[in-house]
Amino acid sequence: MKKSILNIALVAFVTLGAVSCKDAKKEDASTPIEEAAEATDMATKYTVDTATSKISWKGEKPTGSHNGFIKISSGELAVADKNVQAGNFVIDMNSIVSEDLDGDMKNNLEAHLKGTVEGKEGDFFNVGEYPNATFELTGIEGENGTVTVKGNLTIKDKTNAIEFPATVSFPGDTMLLKSETFTIDRTKWGVNYGSKSIFGDLGDKFINDDIELTVELHATK
């Protein structure tokens, strides 16, 4: 009897340890968030033009790739002497568009990504529960219009710090911030569907964890 109790306790201890290690690994994979940048009193506010601003995306798997864009629903940037000091924008996750497909295949992919298919709501972005993602600027470094943008990206209520290279220009009374293509690891935001780093038995039927993004923000005074 004592031996049985000991065995049960040992199994429970090992199981708890395994779970704890798994959780610790996920926590280590996240990127700590930073404080939002603040604008000076001299800064001019630029409002993001939602009609022309977007984030282009590309996802890959062994058999091919898909690409498209997501719209920006609101945002503003604080600028002084042509230097961006602070800012934020909201991403409309309901606006996910696939550009490489047509007809039913396009509609099916967009519905799956948005999570509007019954029983598959949580596979990707679950827009019914998380209709928006956000980006908040924490810092910007560089000169002569070539910069590194740093900020906190929130998707599905999970926030991680990211950074990306970009160019900033001021044609007339407008502003354009356009990034180079960069990648984020979607699993840091709990988008785990088809990830071989999360599920070990997928063979070649997996989707890459990294998503390619290109940010294009048009703004006016």
UniProtKB/TrEMBL annotation:
Pfam families in alphabetical order: YceI (PF04264)
Family annotation (Gene3D superfamilies): Lipid/polyisoprenoid-binding, YceI-like (2.40.128.110)
Domain Lipid/polyisoprenoid-binding YceI-like: 45-220
Domain of life assignment: Bacteria
SMART domains in alphabetical order: YceI
InterPro entries documented for this protein: Lipid/polyisoprenoid-bd_YceI, TTHA0802/YceI-like_sf
Protein name stated in the entry: Polyisoprenoid-binding protein YceI
